[in-house]
Structures are given as structure tokens and as C-alpha cells.
């Protein structure tokens, strides 16, 4: 919807000029949205900084080869590209279980909440409950609005992505995490995708892993299972890329992240080893 001019009739049909009717309300809503967007950007960066604390160095060294199926480990972590580093840390923060049994995002909320603004607190609290990273099928799109379906639970979501669908075609799979930002869902970080030729047997692989996990943990939810096994999606992508003879993980949009986040991602190469 394009905004009416101050002296144009309001879009609501009241017959009043826009400035006398919905203008103020719209301006407030816009201001609120930009506060929330800034808060989400801050939390994204602050989680990355938090994850790079020296006290997590040992967890980092254990998590790297698990996520990358030994493609990267503590000895060559600095070779991760920026999107790879961003995706790895996203998983490390949201899904990985640290040696003490906690997730990094839990620790972050416990330790940092008091120092955050009201908007930042809301984002952090919401993201604590974000679903595990998983594969979503692109069902439909309209500009920046994407209709996605969880490949495993078949739940559907409408997602806002500033870069739109990038180079992903209908029916292809996006490897990502959805996080709420105010009234909509966004990707938590730079996403990867599985081109149609590389989807192959991923559903069967995850199905078999879930069956084995449920045999050991009969009470586990799908989210719990995915938190413990979402790295298998990356392993699949690595294997398929190798079979196709192309670089490891295809990118949805390598240039998506903002400059400040990119700077932090560059610094990750120098993470304490
Ligand atoms: Zn109006």
C-alpha cells in the first residue's frame, strides 16, 4: 500500500484528510517497527559476540567437527567463509548443547537480560523459544513474502525475507531457522538451500535418525530431536555438494547480512583456539 499525502483523503474511507485521521497512528507503528528491527539486529550481533567468549572455546572445538562433519575443525576454522561462520554460530547458539547441558541462548538470556532495552528483551525472550534449524520447502512467494513448509512436520509459515527468494526455485529446500521479529517470521541468519537435484534421500535420512532417537528417548519432541540432529542436514548438503563437484553449501544470498554483522563474522576466524 502506498502512503497517501498529508492532505489526501485517508485510505480508511472516513472522508477525513489523512493527517487528521490515520497518519499519526501509522507513523507510530512505523517507529515501533524500526525499534524492533534495530533490536533484532542488535540481538543477532550480541549473540555472536557472546558465543565467542573464551569460556566456550572447548565447546566450540567440539561443536565445529560435529556440525561440519570434520570438513572444518579447530585447526582450520579460520577458513570458514562468512556465511558459513554465520550459519555455524547460529546453530552453536540456538541448537547446540554445551558440555554443561545448556544452550548458549539460555545462558545469554540468564546473564544479559538485565542489560537489554525493553525491545531487545522481547526479541531475546521470543528467540529462546525459536524452533530448531530445519529444512523448509519454498511453496510460493510474493516479493519479500515467502510461503514455506517444514519438510518434516509439514507445518506452513509465512516468512519475511528482505532479499526475497534469492535463487531458490519453488519446491527447493531452504536450510534455515525461523525467528519471530514483532508480528512476522524472519530467517535468523544467512540461509543455505538445497537445489532440487540435491534433495535426494534427505527425508529418509532424517526419518531414520528420528526413529533411532525416539527409541532411546521416547518422550522427545520433534524440536528436541531436531536440535540434536539438525547438523545432519548440513552433512547431507556437504555430501551432495561433493557429489555434484561444487563448493560445500549453496548460499541463499551471500550478501544478505549487514555490514556490522559481517565485521563480526570476519572476527570469528580469530576465535580463540
Ligand atoms: Zn483513516
Summary, kept brief:
The protein is of the alpha+beta class.
How would you portray this structure in words?
- There is one protein chain.
- Strands 3-2-1-4-7 form a 5-stranded antiparallel sheet. A two-stranded antiparallel sheet has the order 5-6.
- Helix content is 44%, strand content 13%.
- It is globular, with a radius of gyration of 21 Å.
- With 273 residues, the protein is an alpha+beta fold.
- The protein has one domain (34-268).
- It contains 9 helices and 7 strands, in the order αααααβββββββαααα.
- It binds zinc ion.
- Zinc ion is lined by residues 10, 12, 14, 21-22.
Stretches where pLDDT is under 50 for at least 5 consecutive residues are 252-256, 269-273
Give the ligands present. zinc ion
Order of strands across the main sheet: 3-2-1-4-7
Order of helices and strands: HHHHHEEEEEEEHHHH
Based on CA atoms alone, the radius of gyration comes out at 21 Å
Features:
273 residues, alpha+beta, five-stranded antiparallel beta sheet, two-stranded antiparallel sheet, 7 strands, 13% strand, disordered C terminus, binds zinc ion
SSE layout:
Layout: H1 23-51, H2 57-68, H3 82-94, H4 104-112, H5 118-127, E1 134-142, E2 145-150, E3 156-160, E4 173-176, E5 178-181, E6 184-187, E7 192-194, H6 202-216, H7 222-229, H8 231-244, H9 259-268
Antiparallel strand pairs: 1-2, 1-4, 2-3, 4-7, 5-6
Helix pairs in contact: 1-5, 1-9, 3-9, 6-7
Bound molecules: zinc ion (ZN).
Zinc ion is lined by residues 10, 12, 14, 21-22.
